[in-house]
Design goal:
Elements: E1 2-7, E2 11-16, H1 36-58, H2 68-84, E3 88-92, H3 99-120, H4 125-129, H5 133-152, H6 164-168, H7 172-193, H8 204-222, H9 227-246
Parallel strand pairs: 1-3
Antiparallel strand pairs: 1-2
């Protein structure tokens, strides 16, 4: 994919880049309109997050060091997409960093939390991105039963057993990825969105709800809550309040 970055100072710089499609089929709960600017901003943040994870794993004193290769591979996958893609779009510096672009990128990042958190528990991304809570409940119950059986046949002492949610994790790299993304979303809101909301009176309730939901998501991911809980926060709190606060439009 080619990003043509337009700047009033340096003219046009053509950079080959690519990014996965953030919004899937219309069956997904919130399928927001995206543009080249919000897609590019999402890509920047995903690369930033992977770099943070690499740095954290290299300085860690526990088993997280073994995950460094997973994070490096994630960046390599992005680069591979960059090389093979033949699509193109334009990123305009004059319109690049406004509230709508940032809020849409936030919605994209919320979807990435769902994808990675679901993958960490062995749940397909299409389930996490939908609002099929019945299916997620059944999948979570199956995973819980399997984990219980495994623990019952384990020789580990009770003191060495982690909490039940932790035992359900099958991909820790994806879990840490979802945690870092959720933390980054709080950072973006605090540094780039909250102070820039001009009309805080009319959007006060949705703005407060959004801020609370972002902090709740970060906390629940850190606590390794159930995938259904993470789905509930994103679908019922973050996406709707992003839409209300910043007038995001849905794809038709």
């Amino acid at each position: 994919m080619i990003f043509c970055y337009k700047s009033g100072f340096i003219g046009i710089l053509i950079i080959p880049l690519s990014l996965v499609t953030f919004n899937g089929p219309d069956t997904y709960a919130h399928n927001f309109d995206t543009d080249d600017n919000s897609t590019f901003l999402t890509l920047i943040n995903l690369i930033l997050i992977e770099n943070r994870l690499i740095n954290n794993s290299l300085t860690s004193n526990d088993n997280n060091q073994s995950l460094t290769f997973d994070y490096v591979k994630n960046i390599e996958d992005i680069v591979d997409d960059i090389i093979v893609s033949e699509d193109s779009f334009i990123v305009d510096s004059d319109q690049f960093y406004n509230n709508t672009v940032i809020a849409t990128a936030m919605a994209n990042l919320a979807d990435e939390v769902l994808r990675n958190y679901g993958s960490a528990f062995g749940i397909p991304s299409n389930v996490m991105l939908s609002m099929d809570f019945t299916k997620i409940a059944n999948l979570t119950e199956d995973n819980t039963n399997n984990a219980t059986l495994s623990n019952n046949h384990s020789n580990q002492s009770t003191g060495n057993l982690r909490n039940s949610s932790d035992n359900l994790l099958i991909d820790r790299a994806d879990y840490y990825n979802s945690r870092e993304i959720s933390n980054r979303m709080v950072e973006i809101y605090n540094s780039d969105l909250d102070d820039s909301i001009s009309d805080k009176t009319n959007s006060s309730l949705s703005r407060i709800n959004l801020e609370n939901a972002l902090n709740e998501l970060s906390a629940e991911v850190s606590n390794i809550s159930s995938p259904m809980k993470i789905m509930e926060i994103v679908h019922a709190k973050i996406h709707p309040n992003l839409q209300l606060t910043f007038n995001l439009t849905l794809k038709r």
